[in-house]
Amino acid sequence: MSGESSYSEGAGWIQWFCSMEDHQFLCEVDSEFIRDNFNLYGLKSKFNFYNEALDLILSSETPDDEDLEDERFLEVYQEATDLYGLIHARFIITAKGLALMKDKFLAGKFGACPRVLCERSNVLPVGMSEELRTSRVKVFCPRCEEVYIPKKKCPDVDGAYFGCSFPSIFIMNFIQEIQIAPNNQQYVPRIFGFRVYKKKGSRYQDMQQKPAEITHYSEEQLKKLRGKNEQQSKEDYVQK
Question: What's the domain of life for this entry (predicted)?
């Protein structure tokens, strides 16, 4: 575990966990969402201490120094961390989860795009895989549509805690509210003021000038798509 942060007396595990310095990208998942077995479908098989980890997540108590020195507790704690992360990835594409992430986005909690021409546009967290321990969280800029390593280090945040679909679903829901500035500015290489022949400032310029079509999905459709994806993953696993 990487460092502790202050939390109010009597705060539950979820509030305590999300208040850690390295976890500023995470939002607090409703306990009601976690208690709904439908939202946990397919997760139990991924963990050895699933029930203990789930109990820890829903606990109204927070770990003390003695707990954090106990080997057995640390095993359950690690599984609780990953289980919460996978639940978090599902929660943030619901209406309530999206609203919480929108507040963080507008407040710049996820950081700003490092590209100079994006003029410090706010970014969104994204995973490069739905599977745990594949890669750490990255950030996506809605303006230039590129993915970057976060400037603020998040060593304990797995990309699977956000999943690959979150930025697209977020933008689809809030395109009118977040007001993404058009990406009209492109760097043009020059020598003494003269443009370099056949050189472009970005290899992806042509792609960016052709915006992709956006398909709008309801929350119910997203649940069905997730179910199909999980079923396909199971079939692929059996074939192996």
Answer: Eukaryota
Chain CA centroid to CA 5, Å: 21
Q: Which two tokens stand for residue 166?
A: 């979150």
- Please tell me whether residue 128 adopts helix, strand or coil conformation: coil
Cα–Cα dist 154/107, whole Å: 18
Of the CA atoms within 13 Å of residue 197, those in its CB half-sphere come to 0
The residue written with tokens 């060593």 in the block is 155
> Residue 144 pairs with which residues in a beta bridge?
none
User: In order of start, what are the domains of the chain with their CATH numbers?
Assistant: 1-91 (1.10.1820.10), 95-184 (2.20.25.20)
User: pLDDT tens, 28-55?
Assistant: 999 999 999 999 999 999 999 999 999 9
pTM over cut 0.85? no
How far apart are the C-alpha atoms of 143 and 210, rounded to whole Å?
13
Average per-residue pLDDT in the chain?
84
What distance in Å separates the CA atoms of residue 15 and residue 40, rounded to the nearest whole number? 20
Strands (E), the chain: 124-126, 138-140, 147-148, 190-191, 194-195
